[in-house]
Amino acid sequence: MSRIMAVRFGNVLLRLGRDKFSDAAWFVECRLGEALWLATLVMLWIAAHWVLGRLIRARIQRERWVAQGLAGFVFLNLWIGAAMNTALFWGALLLGAGFQNLEQFHFKRILLEENPAHSRAVLMGSSQTRAEINAERLNNLLGTNLWTTELHFPGCHGYDLLLLERRIRRSDPRWVVCYVTEGYFYLSSEGETPPNFFGLVDLADGWRRGALRYLSRDEIFSGLLGDVLPLFRCREALAQRLFGSATVDLKQVQYNTSLQVDLQARAGEAASGFRLSPESEFQKKAFEEFVARCQQAHRRVVLLAGSYNPILARKINPAVRADLLAFLEELKSRYPNVVLIPESELPEQNPADYEDLSHVNADMRDRFTLYLAGRLSPLLDTRESAP
Fold it and tell me: Is this model's pTM higher than 0.90 or not?
């Protein structure tokens, strides 16, 4: 059946999938398997519900609905927990207008795990990585030498990459590419990643590193509760699918309307947030641990010493930039799996190449992707690719 559907709809699926998968037949086959698995879980619950009903009918005369409701809530979370490991679940949530970053991340992550390519790469980090590099075009330029998937998360910090590292282990990429700027280390640690990825297994390590001092209570609580209750973890994605994107985009709209129209004024405000502090040292140590774990897994890490719109870059304390570049050089010297491409070798970016203070426009993205493909091609030689 998967082959028949792939022949009929393969070109459409590949076009809609863009950089997410390369084999339409295999994609369909995997989705059919996921559908059967999730349907089987529902059938098991129906059987368990019938058995539970028989048992409590003989023992509980009143308020049987409480036990049945609690059992249903537990099953729903177990089912969603299982569904969150399927691309079918996340793909269904992606249908329609708007999407959540969590949906995109897991959908692409699962498809990367299924991809049969021998050599795989992930583009990780903040939204600047996504803005600078077009994964679809990169795949076209590199051909069969490397399959690349973009797995960014907005506002990513050094510690956030450590949280995300566990999520890429099953796909076992050989390459990790990060567009690194000051925001990874010298801004406040609060962001979108911890509430979505911090879990019980991170508590001990987070305590040891001091992460609990820099993350807010709400971030930690949301992460832990989402780990226990999968329904809570994907509440916004489900709300958007059921009620439309306007229900979950209100905060983003309010933030966008509060921004200064004048880029110079916005740059001055933003630049004041970059500072050297114990918190930046915490972020750098976490990022170094991320690099070390990649080395243990035999992954090459390509660090692109990026920057911001020159309007903002010129206003950031020069000591911050110097500290960042020294840190990246230190990583290169200490970890043989690191490939550092300094800013001086990257394509020059002017204010006209940016849509805002952080993200380049489509033309610059194409030029940067073409440049990166040229830099990666020589590194893909199998004699050089092992750390």
Answer: no
